[in-house]
Design a protein that fits this description.
Layout: E1 2-3, E2 8-9, H1 12-21, E3 29-38, E4 43-52, E5 57-68, E6 71-84
């Protein structure tokens, strides 16, 4: 599942459709305050803040990663935006 800034997506097909339909323009960002926490050798979480060029809004992203037989996969993600910093 992926909770985005304007969408809630459930399942691989919904996430793949969202990604193929959106424009890649304006997706570049600068990351900060990234924290990766591991739980054993097969589970990790990532938390980071980001800013996009030309925007004063602060974004936040979290992901849960699991090592499966096929390799590492994101099994849950969240993306949100805060109002412009004051």
């Amino acid at each position: 599942m992926r909770y985005g800034t304007g969408e809630n997506l459930y399942g691989f097909d919904a996430i793949a459709a969202f990604r193929s339909a959106r424009s890649p323009a304006g997706l570049a960002r600068t990351l900060s305050r990234t924290v990766i926490t591991t739980f054993g050798s097969d589970l990790a979480t990532t938390m980071t803040e980001f800013r996009r060029d030309g925007s004063s809004a602060i974004g936040r992203q979290s992901q849960t990663w699991v090592r499966l037989p096929e390799g590492w996969r994101v099994v849950a993600a969240h993306v949100s935006l805060l109002s412009a910093a004051s």
